[in-house]
Fold this protein.
Amino acid sequence: MATGEKGNNVYEELISEEEWRDIINKKVKTSKFDLKNVSIGPLSEDQVGFMGDHLKLTASIRLQDGNQKKLQFFAKSKPMHNDAFREYVDTIKAFEKEIGFFANMLTDLNKYIIQSKEVLEGGDDGSDTCSWTCKCYLAKPDIVVLEDLFAAGYQHAAGRDPMDLDHCNLMLETMGIFHAASIIFEEKQPRTSACGEVTQIIDIYKDILFETEWVTTEGHPGNKFMKASIKGMVSMLEYLPNYGKNHENFKMIREKLPKTLEQMCEYVKPSTKYRNVICHGDLWINNVFFKYNNSKKPVKVKIVDFQLIRYNPPASEVMWFLHLVTRKDFRDANLDSFLTTYYKSFSTELRRHHLDPEQLLSWSEFKESCDYYRNAGRTAAALYFQQCMVTGDYLKTVFSHPDSMTMFQIVDKSKYMIECYNNDPVFRERNTEVVEDLIEHCILNK
């Protein structure tokens, strides 16, 4: 087998020739080909992902009929160039979660799904029953090889821009189908006991459905990350235009903010009141890809990056998503419509599989749970925007040195948050909005 040029490419040993052939076999659906050349390397010089290295794979083959093809794939590996980053990912076991999702859980979520007309007629390669995510060709401890969504015509929305109505509605419809898959599996899987209790997917996948970030365990990297984020937010408080250092309740706000943010550790736990499903756990703009029609309208979406999956009520994910991708006035004006769009998709998918949504998660229960988890969305936005509203160039600088990366991730974000707040108008505007919204609803008017 001919491979790419040898040198200091640390990724070349991650995939054997046999694995390359298996990947290609799954892609072209035949083992009768000659493998001419393969290559693997970084997707970009920039810091693209927070939980691993993003890679571009290519393979040149000649089929039995003489036709030659150049195939493209996307892959993620554990961090290979930053020891501190790799230690963080290894300790919270984020990569293990994604491997477990693609290697095993996705098969279960597909198990009882009735294939769509598009799949039955050969659309999407005729093999994509879970239309909400990409295909996986290889999943093992150090690397996962996936469909190249860019090559398939998908693209990211702008990283720091809020989503418009079309993007939000398409995402909510897709999330409804994704969340319904958990319930379809649990309801159709054989019962676990003589009394007929429904199988819970969390009991099958305890090894990957643990919480990675929002934990109370002292010394856990996720707990350190939360504390570093809380310090970063407290450092920004005095600059807020409405609740800053001159506000009459500033001292009280500063005292209550840490405990308010720590409530995230409760929000992420499986509910004992509402029906739980597999939630992505990290739905923001960078983790979704859209395909557009000729009128530039989004018509398909794929959800990627399953390193923070958890078992939570659907409302938890819906509220997180809406608070992470929309502005407050727009979200408030369209919230009822958004919830209706989501539930229509969710309930339609359940009915398509001959299940009654009113018995499993009724509209009234869903609305009630959304009211509860709205503060979870506010909290998530306040914590996440410290990172996802930072520019790529700034993150590249911070993550280029292990000491600064460690300080930013698990020690204290204060220095970086103050710099971004004072020098980046977009960061300042978006963070001001979400932090003041959190203060208003979760501290002052609780």
User: Anything to note?
Assistant: Residues 363-388 form the longest helix (26 residues). Residues 1-6, 122-127 have pLDDT under 50 and may be disordered. The chain is about 50% helix and 15% strand. The beta strands are 33-42, 53-63, 68-77, 136-140, 143-147, 277-279, 288-292, 298-303, 310-312.
